[in-house]
Amino acid sequence: xxxxxxxxxxxxxxxxxxxxxxxxxxxxxxxxxxxxxxxxxxxxxxxxxxxxxxxxxxxxxxxxxxxxxxxxxxxxxxxxxxxxxxxxxxxxxxxxxxxxxxxxxxxxxxxxxxxxxxxxxxxxxxxxxxxxxxxxxxxxxxxxxxxxxxxxxxxxxxxxxxxxxxxxxxxxxxxxxxxxxxxxxxxxxxxxxxxxxxxxxxxxxxxxxxxxxxxxxxxxxxxxxxxxxxxxxxxxxxxxxxxxxxxxxxxxxxxxxxxxxxxxxxxxxxxxxxxxxxxxxxxxxxxxxxxxxxxxxxxxxxxxxxxxxxxxxxxxxxxxxxxxxxxxxxxxxxxxxxxxxxxxxxxxxxxxxxxxxxxxxxxxxxxxxxxxxxxxxxxxxxxxxxxxxxxxxxxxxxxxxxxxxxxxxxxxxxxxxxxxxxxxxxxxxxxxxxxxxxxxxxxxxxxxxxxxxxxxxxxxxxxxxxxxxxxxxxxxxxxxxxxxxxxxxxxxxxxxxxxxxxxxxxxxxxxxxxxxxxxxxxxxxxxxxxxxxxxxxxxxxxxxxxxxxxxxxxxxxxxxxxxxxxxxxxxxxxxxxxxxxxxxxxxxxxx
Length: 591
Known about the structure:
This protein has 13 helices and 34 strands. By secondary structure, it is of the alpha+beta class. It has 4 domains: 8-206, ATPase, nucleotide binding domain (Nucleotidyltransferase, domain 5); 215-273 and 380-433, ATPase, nucleotide binding domain (Nucleotidyltransferase, domain 5), CATH 3.30.420; 277-371, no CATH class; 453-587, Substrate Binding Domain Of DNAk, Chain A, domain 1 (Sandwich), CATH 2.60.34.10. The strands form 9 sheets. Strands 1, 2, 3, 6, 12 and 13 form a 6-stranded mixed β-sheet that branches. Strands 14, 15, 16, 17, 22 and 23 form a 6-stranded mixed β-sheet that branches. The chain has a 5-stranded antiparallel β-sheet with strand order 26-27-25-30-31, with no helix packed on it. Helix 2 (75-86) packs antiparallel against helix 8 (304-318). The two termini are 23 Å apart.
């Protein structure tokens, strides 16, 4: 795209939308102000819960009416749906929560393994998403309405301050997990388009990468300002690990500082389903065990609004568990829950599993609360320990913890105690690191000059059949030659260094038949380093390019060069017939 007056490179404002698993929000900065201070980034300043509290982000929940019209998002959607349930008026309404990870499973439900291999997870434009009751809506519609709400919320806030900004003056940056597949990223781009964000003014940013950019910039800023801070600036050549600890997942990346404070990725992003929602799930299981399944399920069904407020109270206390030497934690419970217990059991609740009732509160032994964190904390520490054995991380001195779950005192202490020789740091407002870093990335995308390829890309080819190596079912004959079909011919291998926008990976192939007047180039991606065939659980077909090669005089001797280059977070595939002007190229459509 030509850099014109209204290109995203020259936009007056950069706005980042962080569409998270459990919480979402936005941030922005004005280009002129950004030049003076990279960290002068503004956020909403508090999303209201409805009970007088305010948080940095709002829950990623969305509510649709019985006729499939968008109703509300965030805290408003939570409260409205709880009210509908309490009044027995929720029939037909569709309520989606914590659905981001479920989007990219084969079965888009609220249950099951929500962290399958996202490198090759399949998704389509026609896919449907199940709400909490099993009702279905178009996944694309659900996500686009969420993005539309966040976009409108920002514009409404901006209008209160200035009235001369138009959509063409804004560069929008939407964050995505670094481990997501190419299809998932393109799905988010399409959802943003349907939310009214034009492709020419849209960028995608990797969440842990954005967090790393933010941490690097606040360190540089503090060094320049000369302020005393524990977050001292990195030196050129120094490397650091980023733990992006969110609600659904912990995503892990590592970077080295280059000249000019640019960030170079050291290995492909990795991680697992060890976020803060795992603690919530363990807590709900504990409460169910304390009161009994019948009591808890009945309470959830009959008093959803009370249940919602109760879980919000736990969320507020969760990050402080383990912060001091208290031997117990007191949490207020809804009185209706105790009434439900008495109705179902015939006795007053007093004591269960060491948890004692004090008026309308429960005293939990602190160890019982700490046990809720055991699974995600151990899994995170074990994975980091494994990563630190990589040669790429020799000499690493620092771990940066970002994301909302990083505010947990227990998680912070677990990482510090597991790696006593490393400097473990949490920036101020860790929960906003991703969205603020995405704003910085929108202003200065050149800050990431290269990445490590997270997947293997290649094309489907026919190669001479070898009965000692190839499955018989792949045997085919072309021009009377025995050929192995569905062979995966690698163009870019997982782990290779990608120079963004400056380096193409290229391989040359011949037409299948000398009489072919067109060549279909099928592009595949795999999570394996060296896939042999274009099928299997680790391989996904991204799509096809059709190249016209009308001159058949040279028969099969018409080499076709297939090039793959990386622009930002997405790939561009080009095919060209040597010695001709026959060429086809596009930002790859993998949906």
